[in-house]
């Protein structure tokens, strides 16, 4: 016995089952991200100062273009199925997967830059931000003063601006040599560094998980899931449409994240 309303619309909603389900799911996603954006607003309004210039606007702009382009290819893939062209569907859907991987790769590069970017406070009170040339994992609070264990010195490339603000990505000043005995505090720019970075990693990390999850579903429909096209093409087309609706939501969230985190 066939499951009703997998292809034809329900009389009460005018939608087939899967589309009703995805809209209900997206409503819960709106509440999730809405709560996070509301928390961001409250934290920012209550902050005495808010950092600017910690993220690369060109990189964020590139990733925005990548996601918007992927939304276009998703629509073209669905339209290809409506026209009965499976090969063109695979072309466009394959492009969508590649664009999703590009987005995740760029975001991984941004994350790596933050986790290798360090705040340093010297014993004389001087504060610096920049990158260490080497592995600083053993420069912990417990052994900073022990030069025998952590090495005599390490090369540090300070940001040209010096502080956590405008110009953080504006190049580097002349490298300097740091000795463990002269370093009072060493901390990477992870989510523990500041409220802003905690918000950045929470929002973009959750969004990246959505991108990865959506890309896996799209890849499945592009690969083994496409066998349904031979047995039930209309239902398969509906599946692609539902997946596309989720992907558009993921893109829409990023369109809000980009100006909020990178520009404002």
Explain the overall architecture:
This protein has helices at residues 17-46, 57-82, 86-115, 147-150, 195-222, 228-231, 233-263, and strands at residues 117-122, 127-133, 154-158, 176-178, 183-188. The chain has 264 residues and is of the alpha+beta class. It folds into two domains: 17-42 and 51-113 and 194-263, Four Helix Bundle (Hemerythrin (Met), subunit A), CATH 1.20.120.80; 117-188, Roll (SH3 type barrels), CATH 2.30.30.100. Helix 3 (86-115) runs antiparallel to helix 5 (195-222). The chain is elongated.
Indicate the radius of gyration in whole angstroms. Answer: 24 Å
Task: Please tell me the total number of domains.
Answer: 2
Compressed to H and E, one letter per element, the order equals HHHEEHEEEHHH
Rounded mean pLDDT score: 84
- Contiguous low-pLDDT stretches (5 residues minimum) are none
CATH topology of the largest domain: Four Helix Bundle (Hemerythrin (Met), subunit A)
CATH class of the largest domain: Mainly Alpha
Helix vs. strand class: alpha+beta
Q: Give the name of the CATH superfamily of the largest domain.
A: Cytochrome c oxidase, subunit III, four-helix bundle
Distance between the termini: 55 Å
Q: Under the CATH scheme, which architecture of the largest domain would be assigned?
A: Up-down Bundle
Give the strand order, joined by hyphens, for the main sheet: 4-3-2-1-5
- Let me know the largest β-sheet: 5 strands, antiparallel
Total E-strand runs: 5
